[in-house]
Write a structure and sequence with these properties.
347 residues, alpha/beta, Quinone Oxidoreductase, Chain A, domain 1, Rossmann fold, 7-stranded mixed sheet
């Protein structure tokens, strides 16, 4: 079987090509892909050839947040039906290494994460019409939501994991810095988890409008009205928890200034090396913790989206057919108008 696919060869060098797809083997499923989102890491691969130490060193098919319909079941597969809409979990830990055995599969030493350039050979992703994957990575998304919504399961899972890292949010005052797709989904997840107040900062009005739609209590455009943030820095900080989703040094400094002593900053955004005000971090005895990807949260994300307990539709700003993949990446890079840009495939 032939399939179209989008393959990245290097910085701004994305081509739509033809490839072949084999029949599913034991325990595998052939999917007819329907929607796939462009993630921040995909965008870094396209715009810059990578981020931090992670570089595109060989051709790679990007894409790790996607949904499709079951086209064919391989031998031994049960629990899935032809035509069923499924969200695809891009994460496949080995199950054998020391971290998998300790219950920390998220830190698997032989993790295969679709569309990732972290390792060689690169793990190929989901920007293609047809895809064969293990059936265990396919989670039914129900009959209520569309494929674009189901494809948001992966980024929502990232945010649910960040929320879990923070602990109980019930009644807490929260700051979210950066209102990109992850930032606004953190807002939705935190609202669902019972946060009392959620203040969001960003540099663009369009992003902040989406944050409001996803549950923000208040938004501040730091490019236009940075002075409005000063009230949250008073008396050593007003927030219990900050979710830093931008990886921008000024936003990290703002979070450190606005979180109360012994409060917490969950670092979700990633970048290269940055300068951090360590004196303030130490002096306020802050907890600054990292949050990477997800584990069991993927199934929870699918459940929340399929029931619309969390409605992700406001974040889907643009869709492009796979034939216009390069245009889709260019649009995704324009934060003034774009949030979650998705590719669509065969209908």
């Amino acid at each position: 079987m032939q399939t179209r696919l989008a393959r990245l060869y290097g910085q701004k060098d994305l081509k739509v090509e033809e490839g072949t797809v084999a029949a599913p083997r034991e325990g595998e499923v052939l999917l007819k892909m329907a929607a796939a989102g462009i993630c921040g890491s995909d965008l870094h691969y396209y715009q810059d050839g990578g981020f931090g130490p992670i570089r595109v060193r060989e051709p790679i098919i990007p894409g790790h947040e996607a949904a499709g319909h079951v086209e064919m079941l391989g031998p031994g597969v049960s629990g899935l039906a032809i035509g069923q809409l499924v969200a695809v979990n891009p994460s496949r830990p080995c199950g054998k290494c020391r971290f998998c055995r300790e219950g920390l599969a998220i830190h698997c030493l032989d993790m295969q994460f679709m569309g990732s350039a972290m390792r060689l050979p690169h793990a190929q992703g989901m920007f293609r019409d047809y895809l064969v994957v293990p059936a265990t990575q396919c989670l039914p998304a129900g009959d209520t939501v569309g494929a674009g919504e189901a494809a948001c399961s992966e980024p929502l899972a990232v945010c649910l994991h960040a929320i879990a890292r923070a602990g109980d949010l019930g009644g807490k005052r929260m700051l979210v810095t950066g209102a990109g797709p992850i930032g606004v989904l953190v807002v939705a997840a935190a609202r669902h988890a019972g946060a009392a107040e959620i203040v969001v900062t960003d540099l663009t009005d369009a992003a902040l409008e989406r944050a409001t739609a996803m549950g923000a209590s208040r938004t501040i455009n730091m490019a236009k009205d940075a002075g409005a943030f000063a009230v949250f820095e008073a008396e050593k900080g007003q927030f219990d928890i900050a979710f830093e989703c931008s990886a921008a040094a000024p936003a990290i400094r703002n979070a450190i200034a606005a979180v109360r002593p012994r409060g917490m900053i969950v670092q979700v955004g990633v970048s290269g090396d940055i300068t951090v005000p360590l004196n303030a971090l130490v002096g306020k005895e802050l907890h600054w913790i990292g949050s990477q990807r997800f584990d069991r949260e993927f199934a929870e994300a699918v459940r929340l989206i399929s029931s619309r307990a969390i409605d992700v539709r406001p974040i889907i700003s643009h869709t492009f057919p796979i034939t216009e993949a390069a245009e889709a990446f260019e649009r995704a890079g324009d934060r003034a108008i774009a949030c979650k840009v998705q590719l669509t495939f065969l209908t």
